């Protein structure tokens, strides 16, 4: 994992990350409802103590806080974490948020009921030791029997087809029209890829501005991630497909073994 490049990627993206959603508040509520249902199925209604260890600008964390859970956010990007706290406050929710590397979580042991790591965040860890360190930290801060909720792209299918791009997204709001798309360059190992993230914004006028941001990801398959999660001290590993869960990515849930 190249921390400066990943941090720079999300520091730069944080101010307009919400624009990838047609309606960010609606998406926050929907994602919180889906993830909250998975938590409720295992741990009961709560409220629960939740750590979102890759909170970004707060898409999952704010929704879960508004649903009544006691949520703490952390993210590698201090710009994103600060925005998450501000956006939560603007909506009447408390969300303490801090800049932190998920491999070195700055929280005491066994303090959370749930750890969330969503939006393909774990894929920024490019080596087995990095993934192992992150999952060990998540297990450490979870109480025995606590729940890990982790989401990634559908890398089983992506590894099979090895696409060169992700589908474009088009949105329009008070800031004008925005077109977002990604180009992927696969490494020789067939597992990792360099990602170029393009944003074309018209700003409400005739001239389009272009922003390009670059990072690298590891396309972990379900079997690979299941093995990592089990080795980190989790049990009852389950995968939830978008068709059944309603979440936009496959979701892994697992219990912290006692």
Brief account:
This protein is an alpha/beta fold and 258 residues long.
Task: Give your account of this protein's structure.
- This protein is of the alpha/beta class and 258 residues long.
- The chain has two domains: 3-154 and 220-256, 3-Layer(aba) Sandwich (Rossmann fold); 157-218, Nuclear Transport Factor 2, Chain: A (Roll).
- 34% of the residues lie in helices and 32% in strands.
- It has eight helices and eleven strands.
- The strands form two sheets. It has a seven-stranded mixed β-sheet, with helices on both faces.
- A hairpin with a 5-residue loop joins strand 7 (176-186) and strand 8 (192-201).
- Helix 2 (24-43) crosses helix 3.
- The longest helix is centred in the first third of the chain and has 20 residues, at 24-43.
- The protein is globular and about 60 Å long.
- This is Class I SAM-dependent methyltransferase.
- Keywords: Methyltransferase, Transferase.
- InterPro entries: Methyltransf_25, SAM-dependent_MTases_sf.
- Its EC number is 2.1.-.-.
Portion in beta strands: 25-35%
Strand ordering within the main sheet: 3-2-1-4-5-11-10
Tally of DSSP helical segments: 8
Q: What is the total domain count?
A: 2
Distance between the termini: 30 Å
Estimate the global geometry from the Cα principal axes. Answer: globular
Structural class: alpha/beta
Q: Which CATH first-tier class of the largest domain would you pick?
A: Alpha Beta
Mean pLDDT: 93
Give the low-pLDDT segments. Answer: none
The CATH architecture of the largest domain comes to 3-Layer(aba) Sandwich
The major β-sheet equals: 7 strands, mixed
């Amino acid at each position: 994992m190249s921390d400066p490049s990943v941090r720079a990627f999300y520091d730069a993206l944080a101010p307009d990350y919400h624009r990838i959603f047609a309606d960010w508040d609606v998406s926050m509520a929907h994602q919180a409802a889906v993830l909250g249902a998975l938590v409720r199925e295992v741990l009961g209604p709560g409220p629960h103590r939740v750590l979102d260890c890759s909170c970004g600008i707060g898409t999952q964390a704010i929704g879960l806080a508004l649903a009544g859970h006691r949520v703490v956010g952390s993210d590698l990007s201090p710009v994103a974490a600060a925005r998450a706290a501000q956006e939560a406050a603007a909506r009447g929710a408390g969300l303490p948020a801090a800049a932190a590397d998920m491999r070195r979580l700055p929280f005491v042991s066994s303090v959370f009921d749930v750890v969330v790591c969503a939006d393909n965040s774990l894929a920024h860890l490019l080596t087995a030791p990095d993934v192992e360190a992150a999952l060990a930290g998540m297990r450490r801060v979870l109480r025995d029997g606590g729940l890990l909720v982790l989401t990634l792209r559908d890398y089983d299918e992506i590894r099979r087809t090895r696409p060169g791009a992700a589908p474009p997204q088009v949105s329009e709001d008070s800031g004008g029209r925005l077109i977002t798309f990604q180009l992927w360059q696969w490494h020789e190992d067939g597992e990792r890829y360099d990602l170029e993230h393009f944003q074309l914004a018209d700003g409400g006028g005739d001239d389009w501005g272009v922003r390009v941001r670059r990072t690298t990801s590891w396309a972990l398959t379900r079997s690979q991630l299941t093995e990592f999660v089990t080795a980190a001290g989790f049990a009852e590993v389950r995968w939830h497909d978008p068709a059944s869960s309603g979440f936009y990515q496959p979701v892994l849930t697992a219990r912290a073994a006692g």
